[in-house]
Amino acid sequence: MEDLELFHFHLERAIYILNFKDKKLAECWVTQLHSSMGFAYTDSFLTAAVLELSITDIDTFHWVLDNLSAWKPYTQLLAQVTKFVLKKLINKGFIPSIDFSFDAQGKILLHENTKNVILADTSDSDRLLIEKVVLTPKQVHSLIT
Q1: Per-residue pLDDT at 118
Q2: Which of 137, 129, 69, 73 is nearest to 105 (CA)?
Q3: Cα–Cα nearest to 107, from 127, 78, 84
Q4: Range list of H helices, the chain
Q5: Which one of 37, 51, 72, 84 has the lowest number of neighbouring Cβ atoms within 10 Å?
């Protein structure tokens, strides 16, 4: 039980620190935890923190993935979400290079209708994560202009 309590303590602390939306503060804190707690443990509660934020604090959730996406746990999380979306697209009969493709950053490019099919039966939390790995033509156009 002590391990679970310690994990919960660090999860709450991670959410507290991330809510400041201060990249340098978060980096210093995580560096200290990596040295004292180890990479795997720290990465576990950082992943749990962003998943919790997707339910409890959407603004901080977006800040974390927009500003800390290069961190290993978030890179791995977004890679898993990308794999999940690809599997879902293929299972629904969509064809790579015809119905969807990728941009230079590895985001999935798809039409709005295809995106709606993928998002139709997902939870709000999953929807937020999926939004981080897909782009529609409208979104691409807004990035250019």
Answers
A1: 93
A2: 69
A3: 78
A4: 2-18, 23-37, 39-56, 58-67, 72-91, 112-119, 124-131, 137-144
A5: 72
